[in-house]
Design goal:
- This protein has 354 residues and is α+β, with helices and mostly antiparallel strands.
- It has two domains: 3-282, CorA soluble domain-like (Beta Polymerase, domain 2, 2-Layer Sandwich), CATH 3.30.460; 290-350, Methane Monooxygenase Hydroxylase, Chain G, domain 1, CATH 1.20.58.340.
- The protein is 55% helix and 14% strand.
- The chain has nine helices and seven strands.
- The chain has helices spanning 3-9, 71-80, 85-90, 149-156, 167-202, 206-239, 249-312, 320-325, 329-350, and strands at residues 29-36, 39-44, 60-66, 99-102, 107-116, 123-132, 136-141.
- The protein has a seven-stranded mixed sheet with strand order 2-1-3-7-6-5-4, sandwiched between helices.
- Helix 7 runs antiparallel to helix 9 (329-350).
- The longest helix has 64 residues, at 249-312.
- The radius of gyration is 35 Å and the shape is rod-shaped.
Length: 354
């Protein structure tokens, strides 16, 4: 999120539409699908008037906007369908917490889409906003690449339910796609955690710690956007009877079950990352203890030798051993030092220090 854009938004009246994402220069594209009596019409909007409401209640219109940086286009599309000014304000204000707002004539949902980047070690996310009513669905995404291509492919098939069901089924299909993509991200996240665990067992290094914190940050961001989604799906089941057909309840229950599974996986991975950090700190501590043990053994061996060398290195003529031992004193002294060293080494090996 651009901090300058957020700073510019401070103090503005409620309902002021400001884009708060990264600066984009791509052209905004609008894809439109219309469904009626099992038939479908698909086209790309040439002008903003193509986004106007369908002429009949029997026609369901899905307008998908790729790019929310042009706030004028976003505002005009939303105004066609009478969306509340605060909803229009939230759409280009990226970084929203997943939520569901019920308006008199529409329902507004905001959540995030996650994808794996090309390097497979990082994750891309963007805000997706959905508004739907009696015969329309509006969807908005940040990037210029349409993330709902698979839904369009399904809609083009002859026996697709999307052609015959209402806006609520289209919204369910969108939510189901986004949540299914969470499982793909979680699978890759699990692979990264397994690789980290294997590397951590083999060797402890600062590079592994950096990778652990990178995965941890990604997981925390993912968790922050997943937990509120449970409330969104549950609220959609309970409070949107005016806009959601009763037959859709079984689909929404299945969707809620998927969200619960995602949150369970996230919590499991979170515990694994926390455990890996503990293992890393323990390994570093054990490594330091081993180093200190080696230094202690070396110091303990050389302390008595240093004492002996210090005593017989004093420059006093009347040290009795000097005259008694004579020429044999030097080899006898070395033998005594070797004996002391050998005894200490044997002792340390018996207590498994070396």
């Amino acid at each position: 999120m651009d901090r300058d854009d957020m700073a510019d938004k401070v103090g503005l009246p409620p309902g002021t539409v400001v884009h708060t994402g990264i600066d984009r220069t791509e052209e905004v594209t609008i894809s439109i699908m219309e469904f009626a009596d099992g038939q479908m019409r698909e086209y790309v909007a040439d002008c903003i008037d193509d986004c106007s409401p369908p002429p009949s209640l029997n026609i369901t219109k899905w307008v998908h906007v790729c790019g929310v940086h042009d706030v004028d286009i976003v505002s005009k599309v939303c105004e066609f369908y009478g969306l509340h000014p605060l909803v229009i304000e939230d759409i280009p204000s990226v970084g929203q917490r997943p939520k569901l707002e019920i308006m008199p004539k529409s329902v507004y949902i905001v959540l995030r889409s996650y994808d794996i980047t090309e390097d497979a070690d990082r994750f891309h996310s963007e805000q997706v906003s959905i508004a739907f009513g009696e015969n329309f669905v509006l969807s908005f995404q940040e990037s210029p690449v349409d993330i709902f291509g698979r839904i369009r492919e399904r809609a083009r098939t002859q026996d697709s339910r999307i052609k015959t069901e209402g806006p609520d089924y289209i919204v369910y299909t969108i939510l189901d796609l986004l949540i299914d993509k969470y499982f793909v991200v979680l699978e890759r996240m699990g692979d990264l955690i397994e690789d980290l665990e294997d590397d951590l067992i083999e060797q402890v290094s600062s590079d592994i710690l950096t990778r652990i914190y990178r995965v941890k940050r990604s997981l925390l961001a993912f968790r922050r956007h997943i937990w509120p989604l449970r409330e969104v799906v549950f609220k959609m089941q309970r409070d949107t009877q005016q806009f959601v057909d009763q037959n859709m309840q079984v689909f929404l229950r299945d969707l809620y079950d998927h969200v619960i599974r995602v949150t369970d996986h996230v919590e499991t991975f979170r515990e694994s990352i926390t455990g890996m950090l503990d293992i890393y700190l323990s390994s570093v501590s054990n490594k330091m203890n081993n180093v200190m043990k080696v230094l202690t053994v070396i110091s303990t061996i050389f302390i008595p030798l240093t004492l002996m060398a210090s005593i017989y290195g004093m420059n006093w003529h009347w040290i009795p051993e000097i005259e008694i031992l004579g020429a044999a004193g030097y080899p006898i002294f070395l033998l005594a030092m070797l004996t002391v060293t050998t005894c200490l080494v044997i002792y340390f090996r018996r207590i498994n220090w070396i």
